[in-house]
Amino acid sequence: MSLTVHTEQRGDMVVVSVAGELDMATAPQLQDQITDLLDRGRSRLVFDLAEVSFCDSTGLSVFVRAKNSCDDAGGVVRLAAPQRGVLRILEVSGLVEVLQTYPTVDEAVAAPEPAPAD
After folding, report:
1. Residue 98 to residues 46, 65, 90: CA-CA distances in angstroms?
2. How many Å apart are CA 53 and CA 22, to the nearest integer?
3. What is the C-alpha to C-alpha distance for residues 8 and 59, in angstroms, rounded to an integer?
């Protein structure tokens, strides 16, 4: 199965809608999109995962790299609307604690900024 990626500007956030299977074969496609966004100064990203049917460790690593790059640029990464299987992978890997995850894209876009750590 292939992967499709679309982006949409919503306020100061870029919603990155991902559909299909996110694995070793397709992860580079998403990574290229993220790199392009970062190169254009877009570091506030919401990944809409509602249409992602599968995500392996390669896919997870794309989100972790995106978070690290966006953090370095003063931005933020949020995940939105993961299907049950993808959410389970995030939970088992412990990444649901690291990557801000929301039930819907609207909630992810509208979420307040976390308070800075002391």
Report:
1. 14, 12, 9
2. 8
3. 21
Those residues with Cβ within 8 angstroms of residue 66's Cβ, 6 or more apart along the chain or in another chain: 34, 45, 47, 77
pLDDT digits 0-9 by tens, 73-118:
999 999 999 999 999 999 999 998 899 999 999 999 999 886 565 5
pTM here is: 0.94
- What's the rounded Cα separation, in Å, for the pair 92 and 82? 14
| HEC string for 20-33 | EEECCCCHHHHHHH
Tokens (6 digits) for 106: 């609207």
